[in-house]
Amino acid sequence: MKIAEQECGAVRVLRPEGPLTGKDADELKGHVSRLLDGSMGRCVVDASAIQYADSRGLEVLVEANDEIVRTGHPLKLSGVNETLRQVLELTGLAPQFEFFADVNAAVRSFL
Amino acid sequence: MTHESAPAPSAWHRLRTVLRNDLHLTSIGFGFTAILLAAMATAAWWAGRMQDEAILKARADWRGTVGRSLARTAETMLADGRLTSVRRLVVETARDADLARCRIILPDGQTIADANPQQITLADLPATWDGAPPAPAPGEEGLLQSFPLVVGDRGQALLQVTGKPDPLGEVYWQTRAGIGAVCVVALVTLMLMHRRFRLTFRGIWAVRQALAAYHDGQRTPSALKVNPDWGVEAQAWNDLLDQTDQAQRQTALARTQETLRLHGRSSSDLSAACDALSQGLILVDANMQALYANSAAAVLLRTRNETIEGTDVGALIQEEHVVAAVREATERPLQRRQIFEVERHDDTSHVLLRFIVRPVRREDSAAVMIVVEDITQQRAAENARNAFVAQATHELRTPLTNIRLYAEMGLDEGQGDPATQANCLSIINQEAGRLDRIVGAILSVAEIEAGSLRLNLDDVRLADLFASLQVDYAAQAREKQIALEFHLPPKLPVIHGDREKVALAIHNLLGNALKYTPDGGSVTVTVDCDEDRFTVAVADTGIGIAEEDCQRVFEKFYRSPDTRVSKIEGSGLGLAIAREVVRLHGGDITVESEPDKGSTFTLTLPVTEGVPVA
């Protein structure tokens, strides 16, 4: 899985590309954990290029949220497609996250 | 503090206490009954004694009468010498009068007549004898009565009559023994009844006393309890007290648990609410020790939440001036809040923290609340906004300055010189167009920033789009002697998107390629498409982009510090807008570049499912 990392001001944006499954999900988890050390929670996951996620992918999102929520910010997801959104809604995980239409809106939420 | 001894209870109080004790009252009652019984026994004994004495006196009188009668008769008969008759008379009198002994003795002690003939010591009556009969020996009174006899001329004799031991004495002692026995039995019975009574009712009386104590305000179960060995009533009373006490304890426990639960829930809710804040909260006591800190505080101060409480503020906050302000706030609780902005750097991050120190009013002691905010992003946004304004001003000022200069030139030098006027108007027209593009780009950026940039979705026929591009840029390429080539597939798809914005994005890429490629270079546009994606790669042989600038070229108003770039006109907004537009379509733009060799920008857009390939 390719995970692009970008800075928007002081906010780090992760843009994983591809399905969030198996080892790819663990790779994202490693990125989020590493980002949290330096960004103090100012982190956005641009999910616009994630087509779908399996159970491990959902688990990684929840674990990342548990880690990041200590900063008072829930995990911010931008550009979540309908498939992933429905999976999160059906599993009851959606209320844990903050959803934004695009990265800019997610970055602005830190202001 | 001195302890004063309790005043001694008064006699009335003691009496009242005793009288209120039923057991004491019962004992007193039984005591009076025993005394009454003893008095009655004494009276009976006294009455019996009086009666016995009267009987004894009557018997003594009777013996006296018999003795005196016998004495007179015996004097006469002895004077006549009728000793035998006298002896018979004595025997008969003793028998009739139920005497124990009856005898006539001479002064020398010889018995001449006796109720018991064998006791006679002198068979015949002497003719005369001398002497006086002996006086009764001391202690012979009582049953023994003596009567002196004057027997004619013969001499004096003495008749002794001895009554039988008083048969009433036996009755007397039997009566007293009976009274005594009755008294003893009555007393023993009374005592047994008393004992039984006490044993039976002491439990009830103890309960009654406990109820009286309860009435007087005593509420302690241990003080109200009675001896459980005092019968079933006492046990039942104790059980009742235990049950009441247990019920009260359970009620109190339930209330306490409810209070604790509410308090705990309230505390838990408050803690959860504080943990949900993105601002760090630290409550500091008068000793400069942290009383509470939420999760965000731990993250922002780079420590662990569980170790903050009890830690000195100086160990949590390195900045001395902030710690000094906290100390001052603890010492002067009425002062206003103070705000500090602190920059922290380390190997991985640069953080700007804002500390707000404000005293907290507490009843017991001084306390200070420290609010920690991460304002790194706010500061970055402010800087970006300032840079945006500065850059936008600069970009707007350049064409405006040209317009003003050429307008002045046209007015001053163009008078009567149509060629100069035409040149000035042409330049003004170009600069006005440039100004229009800059304003349009700024508006697009503003829409993107505001989140109000919307796509007008429609079918985008890529074949038509690229045909137009080839026409639009052919002249510009020819002017710079750049070889512009398009490698298009035989069939281009129709994608679902905003036609103008997709065109804008591709125009930006192609325009930049031509702009930053020196004369004589080449620009190649390669289009690939499959079922899912449509890719446009714009490769040039231009000045290239340094590796560190590859991502920054997509930032708004960013221009590379390369002097070759600064010489070329540009606002620094095109790529930012292009990538934003493409991302809104679900695609992306990436760049690969090598300085002095050229760059390749790759635009990828998804082909909407269901749209047929044209």
Write down the domain tally of chain B: 5
Largest sheet of chain A: 5 strands, mixed
- Domain tally of chain A: 1
Looking at CATH, the homologous superfamily of chain A is STAS domain
Computed structural class of chain B: alpha+beta
If interface size is counted as residues with C-beta under 8 Å from the partner's C-beta, which chains form the largest one?
Answer: A-B, 27 and 32 residues
Biggest pleated sheet of chain B = 5 strands, antiparallel
Shape of chain A: globular
- Reading the helices and strands of chain A in chain order gives EEHEHEHEH
Distance between the first and last residues' Cα of chain B: 106 Å
- Head-to-tail CA distance between termini of chain A: 31 Å
Strand and helix layout:
The complex is a heterodimer of chains A (111) and B (614).
Chain A: E1 2-8, E2 11-17, H1 22-39, E3 43-46, H2 55-68, E4 76-78, H3 82-90, E5 98-100, H4 103-108
Parallel strand pairs in A: 2-3, 3-4, 4-5
Antiparallel strand pairs in A: 1-2
Helix pairs in contact in A: 1-2
Chain B: H1 11-20, H2 22-79, H3 83-96, E1 99-105, E2 111-114, E3 144-151, E4 155-163, H4 167-215, H5 221-224, H6 231-275, E5 280-285, E6 290-293, H7 295-300, H8 305-308, H9 313-316, H10 320-331, E7 338-345, E8 350-360, E9 367-374, H11 376-412, H12 418-450, E10 458-461, H13 462-479, E11 483-487, E12 494-497, H14 499-515, E13 522-529, E14 533-540, H15 563-566, H16 574-584, E15 588-594, E16 598-606
Parallel strand pairs in B: 11-13
Antiparallel strand pairs in B: 1-2, 1-4, 3-4, 5-6, 5-9, 7-8, 8-9, 10-12, 13-14, 14-16, 15-16
How would you concisely characterize the structure shown here?
Chain A is α/β, with parallel strands linked by helices. Chain A has four helices and five strands. Chain B has five domains: 7-217, no CATH class; 219-275, no CATH class; 277-374, 2-Layer Sandwich (Beta-Lactamase), CATH 3.30.450.20; 375-452, Signal transduction histidine kinase, dimerisation/phosphotransfer (DHp) domain (Helix Hairpins, Orthogonal Bundle), CATH 1.10.287; 454-614, 2-Layer Sandwich (Heat Shock Protein 90), CATH 3.30.565.
